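Lecture 7 notes: from sequence to structure.

We start with a single chain of 148 residues. Read the sequence below before looking at the structure.
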Amino acid sequence: MLKNRDQLGFTLIELLIVIAIIGILASIAIPIYRAQTVKAKLSEVTNSMSKVATAVALNYHDEGRWPGGMDGPTQFKSSLGVSIPVGVKYIESAVVADGTGVITFYIQNTGEASVDAGTLVLTPSLTADGAINWEWSGNIPRGYMPLK
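Now the structure, written as tokens:
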């Protein structure tokens, strides 16, 4: 007579199914994780741009004109009183266009080829009541562009 043996482990089919499920989940999660890491790196760029935008807006309201021709952190610090981490991590360089207040940041080292060597641009526009609205633009993919 045959003895019943207790099952002591998983069958090969069960292990293959678990490996397949893990593979499917990884193929979905890894691209999403990479995109979120790039967005986190770009948040440092957008935060620096927001600081410069605030300083440019204050300068406009104080002087009655847009500040002009600032190129780089030294001029930002001396003219606007704002320091930004240019050339260190994700910001290659930064410029405030002469007389228009348009702020352009050049991006580097994010780990995403479609974003590196791209630009983020903040363009001011005046409303009828004198408020300043800022609009984001640039040549990075739309999924990485700040919403507002």
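The chain has one domain: 12-144. Keep this in mind for problem set 3.
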